């Protein structure tokens, strides 16, 4: 169980015209396909608490108000294999009830099925964090798991 939870359990991606985005309890990942041979000096990326702007070679690819707030100083972007930009945003609110339903306020929303799968995954990730001796990466969950699932923290151990 040495690999992180998201590596063992996979990701629940939301496809977009430019790539995909997905999330964990703590982070939002954005993967943007760019023309092969893109150089870092061609990339302009602005990451703010509630706003993102990305352009390559002067062409805007992604811009708008994020669904929720992030920690500005911890956001990063990398250019991988000169054909993919990966942006990692650190969520301000890191509980399982904070499942982003879209990347931007009014754009790139997850369809209902994907949204449901994202919430299930965040709930299992929360259970994993609360119970480090168990492996929830392949677990199935049913019932009321919206808003992070049931809260067992008040139960006696």
Automatic annotation (TrEMBL):
Residues 138-157 are annotated as: Disordered. Residues 14-104 form the CS domain. Keywords: Acetylation, Centromere, Chromosome, Cytoplasm, Cytoskeleton, Kinetochore, Phosphoprotein. One of its GO terms (cellular component) is cytoplasm. One of its GO terms (biological process) is protein folding. InterPro entries: CS_dom (IPR007052), HSP20-like_chaperone (IPR008978), NudC_fam (IPR037898), p23_NUDCD2 (IPR037902). It is found in: Chromosome, Centromere, Kinetochore; Cytoplasm, Cytoskeleton, Microtubule organizing center, Centrosome; Cytoplasm, Cytoskeleton, Spindle pole. GO terms for molecular function: unfolded protein binding. May regulate the LIS1/dynein pathway by stabilizing LIS1 with Hsp90 chaperone. Interacts with LIS1. This is NudC domain-containing protein 2.
């Amino acid at each position: 169980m040495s690999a992180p939870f998201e590596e063992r359990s996979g990701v629940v991606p939301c496809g977009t015209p430019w790539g995909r985005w997905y999330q964990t309890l703590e982070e939002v990942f954005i993967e943007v396909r760019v023309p092969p041979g893109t150089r870092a000096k061609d990339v302009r990326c602005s990451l703010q608490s509630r706003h993102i702007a990305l352009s390559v070679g002067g062409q805007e690819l992604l811009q708008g108000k994020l669904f929720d707030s992030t920690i500005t100083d911890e956001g990063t972007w990398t250019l991988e294999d000169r054909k993919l930009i990966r942006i990692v945003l650190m969520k301000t609110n890191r509980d399982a009830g904070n499942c982003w339903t879209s990347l931007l306020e009014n754009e790139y929303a997850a369809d209902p099925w994907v949204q449901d799968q994202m919430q299930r995954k965040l709930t299992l990730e929360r259970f994993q964090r609360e119970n480090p001796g168990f492996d929830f990466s392949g677990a199935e969950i049913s019932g009321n798991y919206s808003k992070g699932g049931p809260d067992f923290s008040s139960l006696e151990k």
